[in-house]
Design goal:
The complex is a heterodimer. Chain A is an alpha/beta fold. Chain A is about 40% helix and about 15% strand. Chain A is built from ten helices and ten strands. Chain A is elongated and about 95 Å long. Chain B is mainly α. Chain B has one domain. Chain B has helices spanning about 1-10, 15-25, 25-45, 55-80, 90-95, 100-105, 105-115, 120-150, 150-180. The longest helix of chain B is centred in the last third of the chain and has 30 residues, at about 120-150. The radius of gyration of chain B is 18 Å and the shape is globular. Chain B starts with a helix and ends with a helix. The chains are: A alpha/beta, B mainly alpha. Chains A and B meet through helix 1, strand 9 and helix 10 of A and helix 1, helix 3, helix 4, helix 7 and helix 9 of B.
């Protein structure tokens, strides 16, 4: 290459370095708004505080951390949450509900698109949104609380295991697997369940702007189809993800094309290989639970 | 001098890497990796890989330096197995200078930032990034060939050897997890 060619390449190199430095300084000043973005978060599977991962893979980002990332992202103008979940633990469901409310309070419209199932805790989270879409056959509702114990007393007796429990109070071992509940314990747990149920009903009533009596009538744990939920006022419209994205675009006042921004880091090629290998039914999930948890779960 | 070598590497890679082999330039190598790392991460943000901030770009740049340092060590070991002639620092410099094409994406990065990542420019940048990646790979092969005094075929084999070895180990690990 001749001298002039070298000069052009040299000039291009120097201009490029200067351009990168200017771009870096501009981003340091935090004055850049990255285009017309609509955030998309998928809440799939059982809601739990544990981010899934394995020995060889980094934990997948939890739903909550994805919502936090969306909340702190100045580049998104609306958020679509795709929910396909039967619910999960009550505490995490409530945290997700609060996280959605915080995003709304920042002026970001939140639209929910329900997949096959958005029941119980899944509906709890959805109810915090500005607008809810569900398919006609989506399983939703299931407003209620469940808590279960496994009484293994007879099994323990058969195999010769005897628990010796030393406790500081009458209720400290309430729900232990080695014996049945006493009437007092049953009442304790019933009161507890009712309180958690009441919080669910209150939040749905307030966020959806429905009459409490109406929500209470539906809050017996029953499931509803998307169409029934529309009649009951639990959702706003029948539609899928496409309709939800269009609604988000409209709510955000975006004219023209927009970019969808996901907060879940893509799987690396190694994680993809492992996910195929690990994609076998987890039989442990179906065994009786050894610890007590209160769940908004269908 | 380093700027002169950089221009030669981009225009006449064979001659450029031969000059680099004799003159050196570790600090320039680190500088190239930092700038290329920032530039690449600015485009990657537009591809939706992550949220953006200046700190994120800086971390990505540092990550680029450490990753290249580590990968150079692996390549160096592989070269030694095939009787390569260069030292570790010469190997590192060759690999780092092969990242030069990514600096040329600078104006595009600036345009993405200033024009708020328009969709059309995002699509263009992904193709440009792909083309620069291929250019960079070609430069790595030429760079190692010249510094290690290998043939082109042997250089490709040297680069593939660790990949094949690590893939083999990962498959064994994955099968072990499946079995046990």
């Amino acid at each position: 290459m001749d001298i002039s060619g070298r000069k052009i390449i040299g000039g291009l190199l120097i201009i490029s370095i200067i351009a990168i430095l200017i771009a870096f300084v501009v981003t340091s000043l935090d004055t850049v708004n990255i285009g017309n973005n609509i955030g998309l978060i998928n809440i799939e599977g059982v809601i739990s505080s544990n981010a899934s991962g394995s020995l060889l893979t980094k934990p997948r980002q939890s739903f909550l951390s994805q919502l936090r990332a969306a909340e702190q992202d100045p580049s998104i103008k609306a958020l679509v949450i795709r929910i396909d979940s039967p619910g999960g633990t009550s505490g995490t469901s409530q945290e997700l509900f609060q996280a959605v409310l915080r995003i709304r309070q920042k002026g970001i419209p939140v639209i929910v698109s329900m997949g096959d199932t958005a029941a119980s805790g899944g509906y709890y989270v959805a109810s915090a949104a500005d607008y809810i879409f569900a398919n006609g056959s989506t399983i939703t509702g299931s407003i209620g609380v469940i808590m279960e114990f496994t009484n293994l007393e007879e099994l323990y007796n058969k195999i010769g295991i005897k628990y010796e429990i030393i406790k500081s109070g009458a209720y400290k071992d309430a729900g232990h697997s080695a014996r049945s509940l006493t009437p007092a314990e049953e009442k304790l747990f019933a009161d507890l369940i009712h309180d958690v149920w009441d919080q669910f009903v209150t939040d749905v009533t307030e966020s959806r702007g429905l009459e409490r009596e109406k929500v209470e009538a539906l809050a017996d744990g029953r499931i509803l189809t998307g169409r029934q939920a529309l009649e009951a006022g639990l959702i706003d419209e029948i539609g899928g993800l496409e309709e939800a994205l269009n609604k988000a675009q409209e709510a955000a006042g975006i004219v023209g094309p927009f970019r969808i921004k996901s907060y879940q880091e893509p799987l690396s090629w190694f994680e993809r290989i492992l996910s195929v290998i690990n994609n076998v039914p987890n039989i442990l999930e179906n065994l009786p639970r050894s610890s007590i948890s209160i769940r908004y779960q269908y | 001098m380093a700027l002169d070598i950089s221009i030669t590497i981009l225009t006449q890679p064979k001659k450029g890497f031969q000059q680099l082999h004799h003159n050196g330039g570790v600090l320039w190598a680190v500088g190239i990796l930092m700038v290329a790392g920032i530039s690449r991460s600015m485009v990657n943000v537009s591809l939706g890989f992550s949220s953006y901030s200046s700190m994120y770009f800086l971390v990505q740049a540092l990550k680029s330096v450490f990753t290249t340092f580590f990968s150079s060590a692996v390549i160096f070991c592989s070269c030694r197995l095939f009787n390569g002639k260069a030292t570790f620092m010469q190997t590192f410099q060759a690999v780092a200078f092969a990242y030069l094409p990514f600096i040329l994406i600078g104006p595009l990065s600036l345009a993405l930032i200033l024009f708020s990542y328009p969709a059309q420019l995002t699509i263009i940048s992904s193709f440009v990034l792909l083309a620069l990646t291929i250019w960079s790979l070609v430069l790595i092969i030429i760079g190692l060939r010249e510094t290690q005094q290998f043939s082109t075929g042997k250089t490709i084999l040297v680069l593939l050897a660790p990949v094949i070895f690590i893939s083999f180990l990962l498959i064994i690990a994955a099968i072990s997890i499946y079995i046990f």
